[in-house]
């Protein structure tokens, strides 16, 4: 270590004696480094880009909120501070850390520069880095809140058109929007695709006297809108895992279609009688809904996300 010091001091002294000037010598180093960083950034921007997500949609119940990786540690740290302690983790602690960093030059006045000569500050720094790394890792590993659902790209582009063309000025979906036209999630899924397509090409061709404007859309756009309309009736989408989870956990006692046991009721048409919230509660803990229930509870066997997934699957049956 002292060797390193010696060598450094010697180089420093020599450089000082030689009298290297800031311009151009130090400036060249700076410019070179800046250029290198710029090249790396340009390369990343051209070849990878920064993916944008869709516009926020309050009616979407399948969204899994996740920050970018460099904020995952805060996302994870917030979980340790429930409820009204949240401001402590979100504002006060980061504020204290940044303030300390700001005052660091005044707090750490030692003349020595080598990290090993400043064990307290170096130790704290390394500890901080380790903590951030661990929290980032834990955040990346944390289970998603919603089942991961494959999205149909045609339906997605229909949803985007719905926003871009401001259909919500006249229509409501999920109770949001204007009241000039009908509430689309109630009526539109019942129409056939052909009817919807004709209606989008020219509303008056199928609804004489309609006040809905003719939109002059491309064929693909009309189809996408129709697909989006049809998707509104399907309840909340479930992942391909849901039927598998049912087969593994529930089919010993319950039938869907021809497959399954007879201990519990046949669930083939459960969606026509029970809604998602009911099924979710029932599967989480049957005793809460039905004190004399003979069904085991699943709150320890399945995660909340899995129960949500199954509940979406079952509530779609028989609708
Ligand atoms: C200026 C108001 C207005 C705008 C903008 C508008 N609509 Fe309409 N829409 C109506 C009215 C009024 C009706 C009822 C008469 C009819 O069926 O044509 C209607 C009917 C519909 C229907 C048929 C519902 C049914 O099953 O009976 C669908 C589907 C529909 N609109 C979708 C859309 C979409 C998608 C957009 C955006 C591209 C849109 N509308 C824009 C006023 C509007
Ligand atoms: C050990 C047998 C058994 C297993 C395993 C089981 N159930 Fe049940 N389930 C029952 C019985 C029996 C009932 C009838 C009411 C009661 O006793 O709770 C029932 C009732 C239900 C109901 C209520 C139906 C209604 O109309 O109120 C739902 C929903 C349900 N089960 C879903 C599930 C799901 C989902 C799973 C798997 C995660 C599952 N069950 C696993 C035995 C079982």
SSE order and pairing:
Blueprint lengths: L1 H17 L3 H26 L24 H7 L7 H22 L11 H23 L11 H12 L7 E2 L2 E2 L6 H4 L5 H9 L1 H4 L12 H13 L9 H9 L5 E2 L2 E2 L9 H4 L2 H9 L1 H4 L14 H12 L4
Antiparallel strand pairs: 1-2, 3-4
Helix pairs in contact: 3-5, 6-10, 8-10, 11-15, 13-15
Bound molecules: heme C (2 copies).
Could you please describe the fold and organization of this structure?
By secondary structure, the chain is mainly α. The chain has four domains: 1-51, no CATH class; 57-142, plastocyanin oxidoreductase (Helix Hairpins), CATH 1.10.287; 153-234, Cytochrome c-like domain (Cytochrome Bc1 Complex, Chain D, domain 2, Orthogonal Bundle); 241-315, Cytochrome c-like domain (Cytochrome Bc1 Complex, Chain D, domain 2, Orthogonal Bundle). The chain has helices at residues 2-18, 22-47, 72-78, 86-107, 119-141, 153-164, 184-187, 193-201, 203-206, 219-231, 241-249, 270-273, 276-284, 286-289, 304-315; strands spanning 172-173, 176-177, 255-256, 259-260. The chain has a two-stranded antiparallel ribbon with strand order 1-2. Strand 3 (255-256) and strand 4 form a beta hairpin. Helix 3 (72-78) crosses helix 5 and helix 6 packs across helix 10. Residues 249-250, 252-254, 263-265, 270, 273-274, 279, 282-283, 286, 290, 293-296, 298, 310 line the site of one heme C.
């Amino acid at each position: 270590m002292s060797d390193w010091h010696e060598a450094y001091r010697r180089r420093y002294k020599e450089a000082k004696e030689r009298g290297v000037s800031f311009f151009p010598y130090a400036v060249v180093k700076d410019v070179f480094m800046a250029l290198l960083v710029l090249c790396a950034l340009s390369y990343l921007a051209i070849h990878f880009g920064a993916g944008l997500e869709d516009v926020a949609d309050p009616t979407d119940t399948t969204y899994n909120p996740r920050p970018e990786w460099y904020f995952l540690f805060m996302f994870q740290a917030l979980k340790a501070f429930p409820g009204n302690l949240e401001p402590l983790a979100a504002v006060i602690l980061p504020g204290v850390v940044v303030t300390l960093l700001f005052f660091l030059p005044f707090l750490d006045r030692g003349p020595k520069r080598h990290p090993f000569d400043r064990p307290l500050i170096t130790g704290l720094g390394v500890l901080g880095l380790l903590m951030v790394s661990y929290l980032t890792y834990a955040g990346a590993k944390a289970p998603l809140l919603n089942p991961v659902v494959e999205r149909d790209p045609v339906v997605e582009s229909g949803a985007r058109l719905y926003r871009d063309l401001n259909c919500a000025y006249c229509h409501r979906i999920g109770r949001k929007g204007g009241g000039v036209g009908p509430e689309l999630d109630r009526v539109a899924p019942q129409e056939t695709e052909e009817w919807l397509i004709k209606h989008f090409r020219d509303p008056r061709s199928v609804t004489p006297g309609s006040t809905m404007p003719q939109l002059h859309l491309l064929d693909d756009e009309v189809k996408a809108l129709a697909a989006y309309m049809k998707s509104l009736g399907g309840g909340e989408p479930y992942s391909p895992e849901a039927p598998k989870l049912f087969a593994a956990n529930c089919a010993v006692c319950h039938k869907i279609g021809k497959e399954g046991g007879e201990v519990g009721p046949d669930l083939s048409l459960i969606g026509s009688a029970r809604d998602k919230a009911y099924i979710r509660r029932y599967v989480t803990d049957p005793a809460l809904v039905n004190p004399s229930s003979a069904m085991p509870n699943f709150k320890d066997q399945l995660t909340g996300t899995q129960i949500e997934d199954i509940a979406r699957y079952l509530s779609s049956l028989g609708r």
